[in-house]
Write a structure and sequence with these properties.
2% strand; globular; 311 residues; 1,2-phenylacetyl-CoA epoxidase subunit A; two-stranded antiparallel sheet; mainly alpha; PaaA; phenylacetyl-CoA 1,2-epoxidase activity; binds Phenylacetyl coenzyme A; Ferritin-like_SF
């Protein structure tokens, strides 16, 4: 029952060809990409806030320089991704409007507070670690501009992940209080990091279609499993305890069994009711209104320049 256009499109996707801007695509494909890429962009932009909170309080000049660079990278990723979404016919103003009105989501993880310096290490280690796990397969996404954006972004995320692990590796060798601070950070960030991969497969409304279109290559649960298997030995190396009593190695499946994230908490956070949702959105809305004079100035300048050219 597929239309000829749609069948030809699916055949190209199945053959592993990239779809490029302005080529014909099903409306649902375009909408799914706008949703996912814009949410991804918003995540990078909102994701600057929890870490930005610590730039002025980093413990050394070196750590401060590293954190500044990381947060700037995230701004770059956001702008890069907004550009990728714009190729699908949505404007940046429309995307901001969707973020500010609460219509567009951003990653649940950024609605948790950064209470200590160890949280900054934990974000690099766990949050960037989860982001890489999710984004490496997106480099093979069927939509060319998104796939290509992911290549550079993944390289930078690897640096972010290592700097976080390095910061924590230093702290766990410090005083007992420093080590306890790292364990506390792991306790608070572990489950929210697992939630970054989205709801369990049976509750994931978009996965089947997105996988058929090769926007996603793996299911949410597959990537969550890979993340647990990769991260548990790293926690062990740091001498930390993963806060999951059900966590154990399963020889038969060659992976870990682990507990169920608190899905009620997850759905509550993505509905806008997490610990920092209001604070994050207010910060973004304030940045938007504080920048109004600058946008107005740019527009006025562009209009004058156009008038001069016309005259
Ligand atoms: N948070 O049917 P599915 C970063 C929503 S990394 C909020 O499974 P899908 C780097 C989902 O949108 C973080 N909402 O959806 C960084 C949908 O709602 P909708 C950003 C979530 O799309 C590190 C509903 O639940 N990375 O920023 C979440 O097939 C450190 C049903 O879910 C990306 O965005 C969630 N965790 O799969 C920056 C990666 N999970 O839209 C700063 C690209 C699900 O119908 C510091 N995105 N939802 O209203 C993806 O891979 C996918 O969109 C998933 C969700 C896997 C997130």
């Amino acid at each position: 029952e597929m239309e000829p256009h749609e069948r030809a499109f699916q055949e190209r996707v199945d053959a592993g060809q990239k779809i490029e801007p302005k080529e014909w695509m099903p409306e649902g494909y375009r909408k799914t990409l706008v949703r996912q890429i814009s949410q991804h962009a918003h995540s990078e932009i909102v994701g600057q806030l929890p870490e930005g909170n610590w730039i002025s309080r980093a413990p050394t000049l070196e750590r401060k320089a590293i954190l500044l660079a990381k947060v700037q990278d995230e701004a770059g990723h956001g702008l890069y991704l907004y550009c990728a979404a714009e190729t699908l016919g949505i404007s940046r103003d429309q995307m901001y409007e969707q973020l500010h009105s609460g219509k567009a989501k951003y990653s649940s993880i950024f609605n948790y507070p950064t209470l200590t310096w160890a949280d900054i290490g934990a974000i690099g280690w766990l949050v960037d670690g989860a982001a890489i796990m999710n984004q490496v397969p997106l480099q093979r996404c069927s939509y060319g501009p998104y796939a290509r954006a992911m290549v550079r972004i993944c390289k930078e995320e690897s640096f972010h992940q290592r700097q976080g692990f390095d910061a924590l590796a230093r702290m766990v060798k410090g005083t007992p209080a420093q080590k306890a601070m790292v364990q506390d950070a792991l306790n608070r960030w572990w489950w929210p990091s697992l939630m970054m991969f989205g709801p369990s497969d049976d509750a994931s409304v978009h996965s089947a279609q997105s996988m058929a279109w090769k926007i996603k290559q793996n299911s949410n649960d597959e990537l969550r499993q890979k993340f647990v298997d990769q991260t548990v030995p790293q926690a062990k190396y740091l001498g930390l305890t993963v806060p999951d009593p059900d966590l154990k190695w399963n020889e038969e499946k060659g992976g870990h069994d682990f507990g169920e994230p608190d899905w009620e908490e997850f759905f509550n956070v993505i509905a806008g009711n997490g610990p920092c949702n209001a604070e994050r959105l207010d910060a973004r809305k304030k940045a938007w209104s504080d920048g109004a004079w600058f946008r107005d100035g740019l527009t006025a300048h562009a209009e004058k320049a156009a008038d001069r050219r016309a005259a």
